Amino acid sequence: MSNDLVRVTIDEREVHVPKGTGLVETALAAGVEIPVFCYEPRLGAPVGACRMCLVELEGIPKLQAACTLTATDGMVVRTARTSTKAAEGQNATLEFILVNHPLDCPVCDKGGECPLQDLTFRYGPGNTRMSFEKLTFEKPIPISPAISLDRERCILCYRCTRFSEDVSEDGQLVARNRGAMSVITTFEDEPYSGPFTGNVTELCPVGALLPTQYRFEGRPWEIQNVPTVCGMCSVGCNVNATVREGKVKRILSRNHPEIDEGWICDKGRFGFTHLRSADRIVDPIKRVRLRGFEPVSWDDALDEAERLLRAARGRVVVALSGSETVEQAYALAKLVRVGLGSHEAMLPEEVSHGLDAYGLPLSAIRDAQVVVVLGDVSVAERAPIVDLWIRAARRNGARILHELDEQAVHDADRSVLIWSGPGGRGGATVAAHAERLGLAGKPGCGAFYLPETPNGRGAADAWAAASDEEPAQAESVGLLIVSGDEAANDPNVRALAEKAESVIAVSMFHGLAVGWADLVLPGTSYLERDGTYVNLEGRLQRLRRSAVPPAPDELAWLSQLASRFGVELAPHAPSVFAELSERIYGGLAFGEVGERAPLRGYAGAPAHVEAPPLPEPEAARGGLRLVCYKPLFSGPAVERVEELQFQRPAAEVELARDDAKARGIANGQAVTVSHNGTSVQLRARIAKDLRAGVVRIAREHAGDLRGTVEVSA
Amino acid sequence: MAAEASPALVLGGAEEQPLRDLASYRAVGGYAQLERARAMTPQQVIEELIASNLRGRGGAFFPTGRKASFIPTPDKIAKPVYITVNADESEPGTFKDREIMLRVPHRLVEGCLIAAHAIQSRSVFIYIRGEYSTEYDVLQAAVGEAQGAGLLGDVSIVVHRGAGAYICGEETALLESLEGKRGQPRSKPPFPAIEGVYASPTLINNVETITTIPVVLQVGPAEFAKIGVPPDSTGTRVFCLSGNVVRPGAYERPHGITVRELIYDIGGGIADGRKLKAVMVGGSSFPVMTPDEIDTRLDATSLGQRGLFIGSGVVTAIDDRACIVQFALRVAQFYMHESCGKCTPCRVGTRWLVQLLRAVENGSATEHDLELLLDVCDRIIGKCLCVLGDSAAMPVASCVTKYRDEFHEHLAHGGCPFGADSSLDRLFAPVDQHHLAPVAHEAGV
After folding, report:
1. Which one of A185, A238, A256, B120 is least enclosed by Cβ atoms within 10 Å?
2. What DSSP letter does each residue of A368-409 carry, written as one string?
3. Could you say which DSSP state residue B261 is in?
4. What ipTM was assigned to the predicted interfaces of this complex?
């Protein structure tokens, strides 16, 4: 080990670091700050553009950009602390940066949390010698409905363009013009779109790229950042919710190096404004007479709920959303299963424990040599951050396959299988592949299933933990409890509601539940809850209440309702968790879940889980297999966020190149997709990651198309 | 000096008529050195280059043989190795590569092929300045002819046209541009010899350097090393004599000729009976020379002693009509326009220099601004990602320090004392030559 260490002297302090450690990190290890603007290791190779990190290196007459150097043995470095020359260099850089900077800190949203401000105070000149007209630009320019750009504040560190080029690889943000007139822009001035655009607002070290939602919404001394977990998909990115006066004002990443590496998607970042949607339900709503609905008091609502529960005489079905916290799902289960003896739940998607023996942190994807992505749905649509890990793997030289090439998996030391799409049986299918390929226990190897819901696994496990009884086959549905908006939005749940004698729906939005449920209780969002979620890795993570919900949360009224049926249920997440943890999480204390939760895995996970046989591949009969998917930018929350509307999926059908070619279809061409007499007009898009024989359409554009379709120009 | 007596080497045979076609080049012994080189081992060719002490003619004066020896041999690396010829000649005052390409295109091709043999490369890119359209045609024709005659063997030569950016003459920006990216310099290390084009080892040399390679083999490295001013400044240069001289042109002479000899003996002195005021030596990127320095010999050592540079062999005579502030302003404007915008000191500093010089020129500056001007130069020099920032600051700073009286006159006079009499005629193209994006408006100054 010590052979790999090198000795570096920074400002007369000796430090030993592994060979090749960046000089900025080496200095940090010695307790010395080398200030940077453009340097950001997550963006790939350093560029040395901003010149903030100039240091003096013994033996080299010219100042060097520390960010571009790595530690070598015997290196002697002097930073601005001990070298006048380096201090002058840094001072010069800051003077230049500020020459054209508008210094409008008092009205800049970045003010108070701005690296440029901070470093200017520490290293910069105290006054200005620039007496000429500063460079001015039209501002702010919306580079998308979600992000505005102030080119006067921009210091051209190229972090944003490097993110776009080298991390999300969308190539949309570019620099235009040259020299002092260089500006950041999108290609052809199109709006900057894609799953990850918002990350540039956090990368920007000044107030140039800012989220429009946060414009003039708060100052750093008025806000608090609540560390929580995103509940928009199954990745469970760690985030900070910026809160001012009890309201969420923005979402920031909170780097969990194993899960998200500090990147979050735009749905997670910009989707929070659904909390203040105009049609938010704040009071219980009860059906009166045949078609009337009116708000009622909570006492009346609980009376009505009790009446409906009793009237169902044990024939209760609970439709879960998969977005309930573990505690909510458990509380609901305990009420219905223990209190009423009804055990039937409608789960939002299949859940399998088959993958527990192949668990890995998501970051392991980056280190894999072979990544096999099966299932035919774009990873970014289902679990966006996973897409970034796969891109990172490819940049590291990994092969990314969309067919299961068993030889390639066998030949690699580290392979990862990922199932993204329908037919995955909750992970059982990909677990069976992993077992057959001998990935169990092989270091760096594993498999992932990308669920459609953020906490499907946690909700299913909690439901199961509440009772050991099996559901009895009921002739009819006495009461359907619809838990959450995704369930309320689900056509299958709606169909069951038609058959149910009565319906209680828990929903955040008027538009979703009012009209067909007998009683609607106000729902809450993941940002308003305390509790835990289980992400797609099987990692238990802690949600913290960031904003106060406009109505009592689910645990509060569930506990009251439960008491009417003789069921003891605490109204607080920690107590509910304590009860449940004894059963399924080995007694882990709520406080121990952790703010950057470790991947604990499941003790005694079996390497073999009985999986149903794989469906036979579609025989080539001239038709194309249609895969309908739920787009990332869809669903009840996204529909209520103005800034995300431009990101909604276009009315497109995606085809593999060969299939398009065989049909004489060009990219962007209008086509007809038909099946059994029904047809839909869409635009063709040629997708590189799609297998031949498969076409892909977002669910909202697929109409009644099912199964095998034909596409014609 | 026996300057006139020495024979032309790089332009040899093309003194009267350009040697554009293969037959005429062959008639003066063309491609004989390629044949000889191919009979040698690659290592032997590199050793001959090292022995000749041929140094880069693009401006950096790096030993060519040593640079070639940095390229890993095929047994050391699994990647292909490339040769990139820098023909993006854009420095104000420099036009030697253009003359070479027009007059001895085949010698350049021969040099490329010898270099390819030396580093065992099968791929040569010639990155030619976009505005050089005739030169491109001539070169392309020569490459085609050489290929037709089977001279290329398994080597391919691609002539790639630039798109009008001075910065792409910087070797790493050239590589970026060649790869289809925005032309901005890369941070070094890694150096191109290790990671150049397509992250593979790449030998980058200037047109004149490559064209000198057949010459080295022809006269023999030992003889070549005696030409000029050994040990450092060996061989000849194609000097670019221009400005207010009677007979401007590209003159090939050995290193060591003095500026006076070039201007007065070869160039016929200052035109229109004017007086010499300053000389741009090496190119617009370097400090200017005053008339009392013109007996300095044009070799790296002699110039270096005076803080001057041989650069790309430029000697531009500036006569006494020129206002030195206007000259400095025009130089600064050029660099402001050509700064790529990647690193802070250059991007911001070049514009600030223009603003300060304009204030001096129009009389709104103070003594304090002169000090600020020098300080801004100082804050640019040695702190940028590439040399473009230094290239802007060094000539400006030299104008202030060497012609301080004239700057003071501007301050005292409340503006330019020359009035309408000043002229940068034959020195620079006018500022508004950029029809689509005039310099002054574009940078918002």
Report:
1. B120
2. -SEEEEESSS-HHHHSHHHHHHHHHHHHTT-EEESS--HHHH
3. I
4. 0.94
Q: For residue range B53-81, what is the model confidence (pLDDT) as tens digits?
A: 999 999 999 999 999 999 999 999 999 99
**Does the pTM of the predicted model rise above 0.90?**
yes
| pLDDT band per the 50, 70, 90 thresholds, residue A616 | low
The confidence score (pLDDT) of residue A4 equals: 87
Instruction: Tokens for B165, please give them.
Output: 């950016």
Q: Which of A49, A97, A181 sits opposite B342 (nearest CB)?
A: A49
Q: Which of A47, A93, A181, A206 to mutate to test the interface with B (most CBs of B within 10 A)?
A: A181
Contact B443 A179 (CB under 8 A): yes
Q: Do A47 and B372 touch (CB under 8 A)?
A: no
Q: Which residues of A79-90 are buried (b: 16+ CB within 10 A; e: fewer)?
A: bbbbbebbbbbb
- According to the model, what pLDDT value does residue A648 have? 96
pLDDT of A658 higher than 70? yes
Q: Torsion angle, CA of B269/B270/B272/B276, rounded to 10 degrees?
A: -150
> Considering only CB atoms, which chain A residues are within 8 Å of B167?
178
User: Residue B348: which of A47, A88, A100 has the nearest Cβ?
Assistant: A100
Give per-residue burial for A543-560: e unless 16+ CB within 10 Å, then b: bbbbbebebbbbbbbbbb
B379 vs A95, A130, A179: nearest CB: A95
Contact A553, A281 (CB under 8 A): no
User: Which pair of tokens denotes residue B403?
Assistant: 């012609």
Q: Evaluate the CA torsion angle A212, A100, B378, A81 in order and state its sign.
A: negative
**For residue A572, which amino acid is it?**
H
Contacts of A66 in chain B (CB under 8 A): none
Of the given ranges (A146-155, A342-351, A388-397), which has the lowest mean pLDDT? A342-351
Confidence label for A289 from pLDDT (cuts 50, 70 and 90)? confident
The structure tokens listed for A414 are 């580290």
Query: Which chain B residues are within 8 Å of A97, Cβ to Cβ?
Result: 344, 348
Report the distance separating Cα B160 and Cα B87, nearest Å: 9
Question: Residues of B with CB below 8 A from A100's CB?
Answer: 348, 351
Report strand pairing: B236-243 vs B314-319: parallel
Alpha carbons B188 and A48: distance in angstroms, whole number: 9
Measured between alpha carbons, how far is B38 from A254 in angstroms, rounded to an integer? 61
Please give the residue of chain A at the shortest CA–CA distance from B165: A178
Hey, what are B43's tokens?
Answer: 């290592």
The predicted-structure confidence for B109-124, as pLDDT tens digits, reads as follows: 999 999 999 999 999 9
Neighbouring CB atoms inside 10 A of B31's CB total 20
Contact at 8 Å (CB) between A568 and A562?
yes
Positive or negative: CA dihedral A320, A325, A326, A331? negative
Task: Look at residue B320 and give its three-state secondary structure.
Answer: coil
Does an H or E element contain A123, and which?
helix A115-123
Taking CA–CA distances from B357, the nearest residue in chain A reads A132
pLDDT of residue B3: 43
Helices of type H across B294-444: 300-305, 324-338, 344-362, 367-380, 388-402, 404-413, 439-442
Cα distance between residue B97 and residue B128, in whole Å: 10
Which tokens is B377 given?
């130069």
Backbone φ and ψ for A320, nearest 5 degrees, come out as -90, 155
pLDDT at B442 exceeding the cut of 60: no
Closest by CA to A148, choosing from A86, A91, A196, A211, is A211
Q: Which two tokens stand for residue A451?
A: 């669920």
Query: How many other C-beta atoms can be found within 10 angstroms of the C-beta atom of residue A374?
Result: 22
The answer to whether B177 touches B127, Cβ cutoff 8 Å, is: yes
Cα gap A526→A327, rounded to integer Å = 12
